[in-house]
Amino acid sequence: MTKFLILLLKTSKALVLFGLLTLVPGCANLIEQKGIHGPKNGQNIGKMMRKTETIGTKSLAASPAEELYEAFLLLENPEEVGRFMRDLCTPQEIVDMAERWRVCRLLEKGELSYREIHQVTGASLATITRVARFLKKEPHHGYSAVIHKIKHRSVE
Asked: Is 44 helix (H, G, I), strand (E, B) or coil?
């Protein structure tokens, strides 16, 4: 469950972009090269992702995002994940992520058209298209990895 949420978080537009993009190997370099800037003072997001804090001679986590991922890994069951998510996210952010996951599962089954998925879930066609793109074409493979793990877990 924890790994599912971490992979799901990487696709969430609702959460802080620079924190979540570190799930993708080499993403900080690419973002820095492309010059993508954050909302505060035009800071380069790639540089912000790679920033390390040092206190005395101790180097802390490479980024606040890595600390977040480590926090998720400490959670032991869905109840703990839910409590952490309710503290971390707004109710709407959780609804948005859950909607994208439901869309993903329906797309993966391949039984419904985008319009039918929209009717079933209420998700916009833009959201459905975006999830489909990440499911099938984007190099991150977060959705696919979780679906694969779920299928293999249910076989065991």
From this structure: strand
Same domain as 109, residue 45 = no
Q: What is the DSSP letter of 59?
A: E
Parent domain of 95: 90-156
- Looking at the structure, tell me whether residues 28 and 70 fall in a common domain: yes
Ordered DSSP codes for 12-40: -TTS-HHHHGGGSTTHHHHHHHHT-B-SS
Strand pairing class (54-55; 58-59): antiparallel
54 dihedral zone (left: phi>0; alpha: psi -120 to 50; beta) = beta
Band (pLDDT 50/70/90 cuts) for residue 153 is: confident
- This prediction has a pTM of 0.60
Domain count for the chain, please give it.
2
Return the SS3 of 37: strand
In a domain, 81, yes or no: no
Residue-wise pLDDT for 34-63, tens only, equals 444 444 455 554 455 455 555 555 555 468
Does residue 96 or residue 22 have the better pLDDT?
96
pLDDT band of 22, cuts 50, 70, 90: very low
Sign of dihedral through CA atoms 72, 78, 83, 86?
positive
Assigned domain for 83 exists: no
